[in-house]
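seq as requested:
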Amino acid sequence: MVFGQTAECIMIRLVTNGNVLILLIVQECYFAHKLEIPVGIITGEDTKIVKKKSRKKLHIDYLFQGIQDKLDVALKLCSNLGISISEVAYIGDDIGDIELLKSISCAGGITGVPVNALDYVKKIRKCCF
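struct tokens:
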């Protein structure tokens, strides 16, 4: 999702296959690409449908599937892109997203959680330890 022109990298995690969310992400990916902002997905799942939709429909620049340590992947991607974690916008909804959400939020980046995220993720997203 586009959070403004200051974000140089946006990482989106697909949290549902609902048509409304897919439509929203398609629109946001389009605008991100218009602003020359790369878009990526980091997910713990490893499915053919995510691969197909991310490349064909969403034109995702970076796709990481089957990832257990999302923070490590995000830090490496940031290094490759020449940006800091503070320039990342990220959406997460489950326990596997907590460390990355905290790191981005504490660094001053933009984080979000969908309304159907687990309650403990909603609380942690706002904390800096």
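The radius of gyration is 13 Å.
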